[in-house]
Design brief:
Helix content is 38%, strand content 14%. The protein is an alpha/beta fold and 316 residues long. It has a five-stranded parallel beta sheet. Strands 2-1-3-4 form a four-stranded parallel beta sheet.
């Protein structure tokens, strides 16, 4: 899927790292998506592995709880035949007082070629690039960015729409604390989509309009003429319960229900997971044929294979 007249002449990314999508061009994003489609075909084969990165070593540095993203990166590395080292914050030397810089320098001493990092502090991935010589992929840093999640969302959307140009996309929920929202906004607007953000005033960043989005505080307004609804998980571990009166009230005002699917017969629904059923989405929506949440999971492996492959090619 590509906008009219768009061409990608380069076979390599112009970036050495994937820290966020705010500086990635449309051509680079399309290159990742095109490459991911090729790897998606690999995942459909009986033998889901290619020898492309044999002898290449990747460190998974997950200092924040994760299941889907960590496993997805693990599978992506193994499908490319790379060597993988898993490193977690819990029970590691970090819990004994070692700093991120110390950990990075030890990883560097192990001659690791690439590091994938998830961390609760915004900017942790940028910091890591100053500590090691290898490529760095941001797997989510605080409330800053989560670029591979946005890329897998784009790949999933491209399976249902021919172009991102003028596509109407609504991102619904906790915009203020969502790294997924930020990365999607950067990528979607770069590709020509029209983005609306919708959520309670208390969960809406100040001056979010400067990112080129429209703000809606009523769900009906956000879903009018909507092609794609990206619903966000209520991250109670980040803000507690003080910013919304109750989850029941949040669901009444911003939760997607079967009636919304009926009112928007062409709209597809995405969610980064895990879903809080009865909060962001009703059960009927989660199970709906136009809810493409499981497709996102499958596409996540293909996208992360593409990112690892392209950055590794740039590093060679």
């Amino acid at each position: 899927m590509r906008s009219a007249g768009s061409q990608t002449d380069t076979k390599l990314l112009q970036h050495r790292h994937l820290l966020g999508l705010s500086t990635y061009s449309a051509d680079e994003i399309y290159l990742i998506l095109d490459t991911a489609r090729e790897f998606r075909q690999v995942l459909e084969r009986p033998i889901k592995r290619v020898p492309t990165l044999r002898g290449f070593t990747i460190a998974n540095l997950f200092f924040e709880p994760s299941t889907r993203t960590r496993i997805s990166f693990e599978l992506a590395a193994k499908r490319l035949s790379a060597d993988l080292v898993n490193f977690g914050g819990s029970g590691s030397s970090l819990s004994k007082g070692e700093t991120l810089r110390d950990t990075a320098q030890n990883i560097e001493a192990m001659k690791v070629d690439m590091a994938v990092i998830r961390h609760s502090s915004p900017g942790a991935a940028h910091f890591l690039t100053r500590c090691i010589d290898g490529c760095v992929i941001n797997a989510g840093d605080g409330s800053h960015e989560h670029p591979t999640q946005a890329l897998l969302d784009l790949l999933t959307i491209s399976e249902h729409y021919e172009s991102f140009e003028n596509l109407q996309v609504s991102i619904i929920g906790d915009i203020a604390h969502s790294r997924v929202a930020r990365s999607n906004i950067f990528a979607l607007t770069t590709l020509g989509a029209h983005v609306t953000v919708c959520g309670p005033q208390t969960l809406m960043p100040v001056h979010i309009e400067k990112l080129g989005v429209r703000v809606a505080h009523h769900l009906r307004d956000a879903l009018r003429d909507c092609d794609v609804a990206i619903t966000l998980r209520m991250q109670r571990e980040r803000f507690g319960a003080s910013l919304v009166p109750s989850l029941r009230e949040y669901h009444a005002l911003y939760g997607l229900r079967a009636e919304h699917m009926a009112q928007s017969p062409n709209m597809i629904v995405l969610h980064p997971g895990p879903v809080n059923r009865g909060v962001e989405l009703d059960d009927e929506v989660v199970e709906h044929e136009r809810a493409v949440i499981l497709d996102q999971v499958t596409n996540g492996v293909a996208v992360r294979m593409a990112v690892i492959y392209l950055l590794a090619s740039e590093a060679k």
